[in-house]
Amino acid sequence: MKEVRYRFSTGFFITLSLALLLFGNKNATVVQEARSTLIDVFVPVLDVVSRPIEAVDSAFGWVQQVAIVFSENKRLREENAKLKNDRIKASQLAIDNQRLKKLLNVGEGQVNTIAAARVVADSDSPFFKSVLINRGTSDGIAKGQAVITENGIVGRTITVGNSSARVLLATDINSRIPVKLASRGINMILEGDNSAYPKVTFLPLGEEIAVGDLILTSGYGMVFPPDLPVGQVIEVDEKGIKIKLSGELHNLNYVSIVGYEIIRNQLTQPGRAGTALQEDQN
User: Fold this and answer.
1) In which element (H, E) is residue 76 found?
2) 119, 129, 208, 247: which sits with the fewest CB atoms below 10 Å from its CB?
3) Sign, Cα dihedral of 17, 19, 25, 26
4) pTM to 2 decimals?
5) pLDDT tens across 159-216, in order?
6) Which residues pair with 215 in a beta bridge?
7) In angstroms, rounded to a whole number, what is the distance separating the alpha carbons of residues 20 and 10?
8) Residue 190 pairs with which residues in a beta bridge?
9) DSSP 182
């Protein structure tokens, strides 16, 4: 549209220039007055002619914007429909999970923070990695409970007195903690070797692990609750898979002792087993 306007304007001024060249040598004053008059006449005409062209250009731009908005709206509708479908699937999976738990009598895990304690001494031995805390049986502490910090796991209690307890650290050669790969849930064992970087073992055949992968507790063994931070893979070679622990075990001040147990549902009465299963299926 703009090209048409420019062609019209160019043709008009070319014609006007030729006319002025023909008559300009004979009477300059008349030509100058004629030139001014013609310009005064045709400028409003050009302005009127240009307005519809600009309007068409504006309308064309508006149509383009509408097309863009329509395309974006279509994409958002498709995305919304996908999210709704995913939500429905998630809800169905949650329902199926609850039914399976009822069928298998699997309860939810319960984590209780028993006490907070201060580390009062460590073994400072290359052969035995442990610390002594100032809480004991009088505070509800028992042997075999998990000890953690806000950053991750520390170890477990191994001997408990009335007002103190010894904690075996995750780095000790006698420590074995069930863990899993955070990204895929692959179960493994974290084994201490008296170094600052324990290893994970029993990686299933065919599975791969890489530097940077995150390791969490699996909840197996009924000592450490599941999904607690353990550490990150820092080395993978023929010697093994080394883990940098999330918690700084060489600089412990305060720790928490936690208890973990599975709360099982009441077993279904034998006489009502078939009825309960039928109700779940309905």
Assistant:
1) helix 28-104
2) 208
3) negative
4) 0.58
5) 999 999 999 999 999 999 999 999 999 999 999 999 999 999 999 998 999 999 999 9
6) 181, 231
7) 15
8) 177, 200
9) T
